[in-house]
Design goal:
alpha/beta, about 35% helix, 10 helices
Amino acid sequence: MEAITLNALTKVYGKEKTVAVNEVSFAVEKGELFGLIGPDGAGKTSIFRMLTTVLLPDGGSATVNGFDVEKDYKQIRSSVGYMPGKFSLYPDLSIEENLNFFATVFNTTVAENYDLIRDIYVQIEPFKKRRAGKLSGGMKQKLALCCALIHKPTVLFLDEPTTGVDPVSRKEFWEMLKRLKAQNITIVVSTPYMDEAALCDRIALMQDGKILSIDAPENISKAYPDSLFAVRADHMYALLNNLARYEKTLNSYAFGEYAHVALQSGIDEAVESAALKSWLESAGLKDVEVQPATPDIEDCFIRLATVHQAAVIK
């Protein structure tokens, strides 16, 4: 059963009519961990704000738990939890005071729903008298999640919850989300981090307010149509310049210590690896390594975004 539906949902800002969300349609099943993946400006936050009834759509429609985001905002607000990208709790209140305040807003108590937040709260409870503004990034994140859960929502919206958080806290956070999902809470999370996409049941890759692809992460990776190679040489800048000039190159970009280059599909990878290596060496590059690479979500996103941009320019 669907917990969330979007049908051509649209949001436009300002006198210049900037389209932030462009007729987006998808559905999220109950109990699913769904990811909106894309860079800043992709439209993720605007979608979240419309689904949580903070913003009104300018076109299309959406429902949360069967309630319309325009007509049934009271029912939606009482049944969802929302953790915005920017820390928005009261910095002058302590951990304990913030949590009690949000419980009171929803006519409940911390004790009544403590089972839902126990695993998270015990990690910050030793500091419960500390003001929220004095907490580390990871502790703020855990407190914000507790406050979003304290009224026992059935749907949880998390807008870039791990941005600016250290790697250890990021890992802990996603482990917490898995435990929440096991309690049949529907979770929609947005992130610019492509490595977090693989932790979702399904993802929607977004760019410029449009959906580029929706599927399970492994299916998106398997659908990558081109031949991908990882290439390394003594000078990255010169390597990228030369890869861009190679006649069979469809796209190339830096990828950590390597450059990734997408070539035409249907080629013999062993033959092409040797040919590309020889061509780069003839261009003066040294210590050249060329090997086939397995596409991940970032490779897929770059390809889809490049195709999308080319279509926009046309």
